[in-house]
Amino acid sequence: MGEPQSHFLVLTFPAQGHINPALHLANLLATSTSSRVTFSTPVSVHKSLTSSSTHHPLITFTPFSDGYDNGFNGYNKDYTHYMSQLTLVGSKTVTNLVTSLSSEGHPVTCIIYTIMLPWAADVARHLGIPSVLYWIQPATVFSIYYRYFHGHDGLIDSHKDDPSFQVKLPNLPPLEIQDLPSFLLSTEGYMEWLDSKPPSSVVYVSFGTLAVLQEKQMEEISKGLELSGRDFLWVVNERGMFVNWCNQMEVLSHPSIGCFVTHCGWNSTVESLVSGVPTVGMPQWTDQATNAKLVEDVWGTGVRARLSDEGVVVVEEIVRCLDAVMGEVGVDVRGKAAEWKKKALEAMGEGGSSYRNMKRFVDDVSREINLHG
Q1: Distance CA 239, CA 308 (A)
Q2: Which molecular function term from Gene Ontology is one that the record holds (predicted)?
Q3: 313-360, pLDDT tens digit by residue?
Q4: Are the C-beta atoms of 275 and 252 separated by less than 8 Å?
Q5: Contacts of 1 (CB under 8 A, 6+ apart)
Q6: Global pTM?
Q7: Which of 18, 46, 254, 263 is flagged as catalytic?
Q8: What domains does the chain contain, in order, with CATH numbers?
Q9: Contacts (Cβ under 8 Å, ≥6 apart) of 108
Q10: For labelling, which of 106, 129, 213, 257 has a CA lying 20 to 30 Å from the CA of 327?
C-alpha cells in the first residue's frame, strides 16, 4: 500500500462523550479509506487515551494545549474562562501542530472538529485547509437549534418559564420547555466484578465528564441505589462498586448490565442503543433533555426521572425509575431496547444507513481535497 494521499486531523473536546465518537470516526476513516489520521486532544487527556487503547496503524496521536495541561477541574473553576482559554491557546497550538505536520512531510488535507471547538474552522480557513464539523449530537437537536435561530427564538424565549407550553416544530414531536436543549485506563477490577453478577442485574450509573451534580443530588442517588437493593457500578471522582473511569462501551456490553442511569449525553445514548441496555435519564444540560425525550417518548427504551420542587431527583423517584426499567413492569421497555439494538447494528453494518453516510462523507471530502489540491 502506498503513502496515503489524504491526511485528516481530527480535533476533539476533552470529554469522553466527544472523544469516543471522534475516535470511532478516525478508525473508520483509516480503515475504509487508507487515509492518514492524526487524532488530537488536549494534553491533559492525551496520555490516558494512548496508553489504554489500540488503534489502526495509520492513526497517530498528537496533543494540543488548551491552557490546562494538568487538567481542568470543573468543580472549582469557571467554564466560561476555560472556553476562552481553549479558544485562545487551542487556536495557536493547533496552528503550530498543522505547520509541524506539514514540515514533516505529512500536510493536513482536512480538519475535522467536534462541537465546542468552533475556532477550529477559523484555523483551517486561515491555513487554507477544508474543515468539517463532526456533529456528535442527534439530528433532532440540530433541527431545534436551526429553527430557534431561524424564526422561533421569540416564541421559545417568551414561554421559557411556562413548563406546560409545547413547541411544535416541523417534523418533530411536540416538545415541552423541559425537552429543549439548554444553550448553555484499565478495565481491571470493575470487569471482574461485573463477571460475578447475574445477567441484566447491575445498574450502571454515569453522568459524563462535564456534568457536576449538586451534593444533595448525589446523596439522593446514593440513597436510591441503596434502597433499590440492586447491584450498581457508579463512575465517580459490597453491593455497589465505584470507579474513577471505565470503558463505557465495554461495560454496557457486559451481560450483567440491566440498566444505565445516565445524563443522556448523545454518545451515551447511542452506546446504550447499540448495547440494547434500557436507560433511566437524568439530563443536565445542552442536548440532554431532548435526548431524554427521544428515549422515553419516541423510542420507548427508557424512562426520564422527574425533578422535585427542590430541583433534584429524590430517592423515591430513583427507585420508581429503576423498577420501571428492571422490574416486572419494564418488560416493554426492555423489549424495545432489544429492538433498537438490532436496528442500530443493521445501520452500522455494510450497506446500512450509517455505513452509506460514511462513504458519502469520504467521497465528498475527497472531491473537496481534489478541488483544493
Answers
A1: 27
A2: quercetin 7-O-glucosyltransferase activity
A3: 999 999 999 999 999 999 999 999 999 999 999 998 888 888 888 778
A4: yes
A5: 34
A6: 0.72
A7: 18
A8: 7-136 (3.40.50.2000), 139-179 (no CATH), 190-348 (3.40.50.2000)
A9: 7, 8, 9, 38, 98, 101, 102, 127, 129
A10: 213
